């Protein structure tokens, strides 16, 4: 087995972990809305999955993706690689600057004011919008990695 195939296997595995956990968050949020008495548990569960699994997997995706491009001799200026890297940077910035603070704020607002407070509802709405934007970003990255479009 070549080093490239091993890196590719690990890259795909971590992509499944990262996107799989992220895809579960709307289910957790829906459960939290339907059962407000369990909302804090659900939000803390999302935070744990994000901090301990999804985010480390995203970090490893970058490392493995770069290792694959270098081992295969693919220039970083290749359209699909460069585009995916730009989107990856936007994903990280969006996650660090918006998603994580919003989730922390939701947990804090829920603990202090409850599920019907204006602050919690505002942060929940913001989290939904940010989550959708980041999910679209990830979907486009996955598209670029699979299809590898050229001009």
Detail the poorly predicted runs: none
Tell me the series of helices and strands, N- to C-terminal: HHHH
Average pLDDT level: 97
Q: Note the beta-strand portion.
A: under 5%
Can you walk me through this structure?
The protein has 151 residues and is mainly alpha-helical. Helix content is 87%, strand content 0%. It is built from four helices and no strands. It has helices spanning 3-34, 39-72, 79-113, 118-147. The protein starts with a helix and ends with a helix.
Annotation keywords:
single chain, 151 residues, mainly alpha
Describe, in short, the structure shown.
This protein is mainly α.
List the helices and strands and how they pair.
Layout (H helix, E strand, L loop, with lengths): L2 H32 L4 H34 L6 H35 L4 H30 L4
Helix pairs in contact: 1-2, 2-3, 3-4
